[in-house]
Amino acid sequence: MSDNGPFxxxxxxxxxxxxxPLPFRFDGRHLRGLRGDTLASALLASGQLxxxxxxxxxxxxxxxxxxxxxxxxxxxxxxGGRFEPNQRATTTALVAGMVTTSQNCWPSLNVDVxxxxxxxxxxxxxxxxxxxxxxxxxxxxxVFEPVIRRSAGLGKAPTEADPDSYEQAYAHADLVVVGGGxxxxxxxxxxxxxxxxxxxxxxxxxxxxxxxTDHADGQSRIDAALADLRAMPNVTLRRNTMAxxxxxxxxxxxxxxxxxxxxxxxxxxxxxxxxxxxxxxxASGALERPLSFAGNDVPGVMLASAxxxxxxDYAVAPxxxxxVVTNNDDAYRTALAALxxxxxxxxxxxxxxxxxxxxxxAVRARGIRILSASAIAGVKGGQGVQVxxxxxxxxxxxxxxTIEADCVAMSGGWSPVVHLWSxxxxxxxxxxxxxxxxxxxxxxxxxxxxxxxxxxxxxxAGDLLVAGATGAEPEQPLLPVWVMPVNATKAMKxxxxxxxQNDVKVSDVELAAQEGYASVEHTKRYxxxxxxxxxxxxxxxxGLAVLSAALKQPIPQTGTTTFRPPYTPLTLGTIAAEARGDxxxxxxxxxxxxxxxxxGAHWEPVGHWRRPYCxxxxxxxxxxxxxxxxxxxxxxxxTLDASTLGKIVVKGPDAGRxxxxxxxxxxxxxxxxxxxYGLICNENGFLIDDGVAARLSEDTWLxxxxxxxxxxxxxxxxxxxxxxxxxWKVYTANVTxxxxxxxxxxxxxxxxxxxxxxxxxxxxxLPFMGWAEGQIAGIPAxxxxxxxxxxxxxxxxxxxxxxxxxWEKLHAAGADLGVTPYGTExxxxxxxxxxxxxxxxxxxxxxxxxxxGLNWAISKKKSxxxxxxxxxxxxxxxxxxxxxxxLESLDGRMLPDGVYAVDEGVNPNGQRxxxxxxxxxxxxPTLGTPIAMGLVRHGPDRMGEVLEFPVAGAETxxxxxxxxxxxxxxxxxxxx
Amino acid sequence: xxxxxxxxxxxxxxxxxxxxxxxxxxxxxITKAAAIPLPGPTSTTTxxxxxxxxxxxxxxxxxxxxAELAAALAELTTALAGQHVLVLDVSDMRAAFAIEGGxxxxxxxxxxxxxxxxxxxxxxxxxxxxxxxxxxxxxEGGFVLIGFRSVADYLRGLLxxxxxxxxxxxxx
Lengths: 976, 172
Known about the structure:
The complex is a heterodimer of chains A (976) and B (172).
Chain A: E1 7-8, E2 17-26, E3 29-35, H1 39-45, E4 52-53, E5 60-61, E6 74-77, E7 84-88, E8 99-102, H2 128-131, H3 137-151, E9 166-178, H4 182-193, E10 198-201, H5 211-214, H6 218-230, E11 235-238, E12 241-247, E13 251-257, E14 270-282, E15 286-288, E16 301-303, H7 304-314, E17 316-317, E18 322-326, H8 332-340, E19 348-350, H9 358-365, E20 370-371, E21 374-380, E22 387-392, E23 399-404, E24 407-411, E25 414-416, H10 419-423, E26 428-431, E27 436-439, E28 454-456, H11 467-470, H12 490-493, E29 497-499, E30 504-505, H13 506-514, H14 520-527, H15 540-551, H16 555-558, H17 572-576, H18 593-598, E31 602-606, E32 609-614, H19 622-635, E33 638-641, E34 646-651, H20 655-662, E35 675-681, E36 687-697, E37 700-705, H21 710-723, E38 731-734, E39 739-745, H22 749-756, E40 771-776, E41 779-784, E42 793-799, H23 803-813, E43 820-821, H24 824-833, H25 868-871, E44 882-889, E45 900-906, E46 912-924, E47 929-937, E48 946-951, E49 954-962
Parallel strand pairs in A: 2-8, 9-10, 9-14, 10-11, 14-28, 16-24, 18-19, 18-24, 19-20, 33-43
Antiparallel strand pairs in A: 1-17, 2-3, 4-5, 6-7, 6-8, 12-13, 13-14, 15-25, 21-22, 22-23, 26-27, 29-30, 31-32, 33-39, 34-37, 34-38, 35-36, 36-37, 39-42, 40-41, 41-42, 44-47, 44-49, 45-46, 46-47, 48-49
Chain B: E1 7-11, E2 14-20, H1 23-34, E3 44-46, E4 51-56, E5 59-65, H2 69-79, E6 86-89, E7 94-100, H3 104-109, E8 124-129, E9 132-139, E10 142-148, H4 152-162
Antiparallel strand pairs in B: 1-7, 2-5, 2-6, 3-4, 4-5, 7-10, 8-9, 9-10
């Protein structure tokens, strides 16, 4: 082992178990840690101080912190589908066999060609993306961007699917305490004793926060609180659970790590908790701030608290000669911890003039030099600290002394973790005395009752010592230090890091201010201060203090950037949870779904339904299958699974009056036993659905909607009933799924159904647009004689549970008739051959029925219906509106869907004027020619005219305006 | 091998009748015809084989053995004749599952935002299971969950997944 750098101490380490060594790999090297280690402590114990490189300059980086705020020690973790970039070594528990890689370096961590950026930093100042590579224009896309992209960016994205599972769960509690340190545990105990249901969330695997490390009898105080809490059945304690965000109405999201470190346990790796909290106690502690001195990013310069954590928790010494630099008393704890571990502390450098509190006195009593009113002028060293240069804090950095050291423990004071408090609107106050932003309890995040929904306690509320609970001695005030030394030169500021992850220095923020950036939010984006994975947990306050000084304004006037969830990055898997694979989306299946599947149906998604598009036979293309199905229907008989069609029962004394308002046509006059086609518009007059309504009884109608319209039309009806016509006596019920519906279609349809027997389906008993009820093949059924294909057609509705039985009986009985299942595409083509419109093809939310030549379905007798007045507005009655026509291709090519017909001249943008577009287009197997429908400016008046449809990369299409009914114009086939 | 949190079983013999009515006017007739007391808001009543669920201020769901469905439908229709009501057989449009076992509540807690601890023994909740609508009530040893027929496979998949062995929600 070298004489410098980190190593494992022979004694101590409250979280490790020396009986269980764990092998792991780092950049291919085989290393060994102990059970209880984090990756960071295991690497340090192996002498590995350098763990990555920075974002912009590829500077060598060692760990700065010991917890969730870590900006530097980010590793690629795992392999294959389990690879995850940017994992914080300081919070990742070590697991035997772990494979880890350093990031952002090439070809290796030690020799990195990107580090050349390091020598270019004068040329990569704040905002360099915005101003350096603007001209010449094409260079950005072809030269600068590809080069920057290759050298920039943190970890690599995984390239394989994640094999682990994730889940979510809901929870409810009167009180949720976020943070299992002393303040949180005591708040939980108080609430628990009041009988409240309490949940305590702790992001770490162990309880206690800083108390066990920082206070002599801290662990026993924590143990006592835990014992009390565990005895309360109304208190739930959850470790490894990080509260990521607090939202309106006490909605708290938290991530529990379950099997992060045991991928073979078969458990969900992580669980996202979605908690409704009656109240939230924010006991999230505080984060230590770095000091801004030259060379503060050299590996081995760490937060003072992290240095003593590594020593006390993991028995890892970050160095052998540790210089402490501070502006407060707390950092002296690190000096004492280092001394207790047998390490050297050559000096404590304190910016304050007269450090004389109990902790400094204790350090002084151990014979340690305390250099007061002093600062660090510079840290020398490449991949590790070698020399610390000391200067006066009030000077410009003239070196008065050099100290050999391999570790610097720095403390610039503490910042309460106010993220949760702030997520949902809690405000902050700047405390000059404590040099920190504190939750302003007079402006809390509020709940539905206007009262506070969160309460900060302990260090998160600025009470760093929690003396009442820890027994800590009072400490002397800190001296705010934002730049060290006070009058540091420009050259020194070039080496003072604010944001270690993104390489933002004091000089960058000052430059931004000089260039006119006054808003902290703008400065963040311009300099990248506080961006990326750590979101500036250790850099934000220092950054905005420097900005405030540069702007010559007090810190609260500058304010903070916005605190947004998540507190630390969330794995996307937790957000998706079970929604992957078969459970990605609910697939709606009709009662005959399995039959279609067994017959090799090619599926078409229609909303969440899957409908057969066609049933290709062996070696058959989809187009050939569709053509075969159409010929079978027109020449014999086919069956369509129409179960997905919406079915809404409308019943009541006012049902007829209601439907007269819902539909453009008249439904109240429909005789019982009859069906009528109807159009539904919204209040703007636009056509939103169509279908056939059947009158079931004097006061009951069954409304058929489109497949996609079922839920929407039901909601539309309820909206009008509940909000406008609340006194009308009408009940509606969406019974879409109660019925399986089979369209039996073709000249042999009646023949086939008669073979099943049970109902008189003769034209006399069941005429076109009639319906009848009875039993078919012993199955209770309603049969509607309606046609969407132009053929003789019966739609047979049976209880869903018997749909498959009916379907199979039809196919058994009709085998010799060539009965053929057909899919949605055959249905579409056949309706287009007949010139029937399709909602969503001929309509797009801007089309009124009059555009489609459907005036016959609009009642002239009614005083009103939804959309009537809108349809009377001048633009709606404009004779030049685009209207439905048929389009006949002149050269036999099928018109592409959606293409536009051009007109003479250009619009103000220099684009060709337009006069129409194609809405439906197919090759008709029945006619052997292409057919199309479209909307054309007063098209029905222009029969025979030829339109041009230019298409990129092909010869312009030409089509003649014709009648949209291409097949069986007289409509005789529907009579069989 | 740890045990599943609960046993998931599809129930295929439930009849269901949807009733829409002004319950203050028609309540007595419904109670008499269905032979079961009227439930209060968000709760259910049962008479052993039948359960009457409160679905909304003007909607009830009568759940009963499939074999009793036709007769109950006829009795309700007759009893309520002349009143403005809607009585419909909706048995076929539903899928139903029993969630049975010691930690049935944990299975539901993964799928529905309901506060199950606040749901009394006779409670009824209309909620969602992950991405689809559902309703559920307690019955001996767990819950009965109903959803739409078309998503029965999805519901089954959700429930089985949520009940996987070793995935209990108790703190560890």
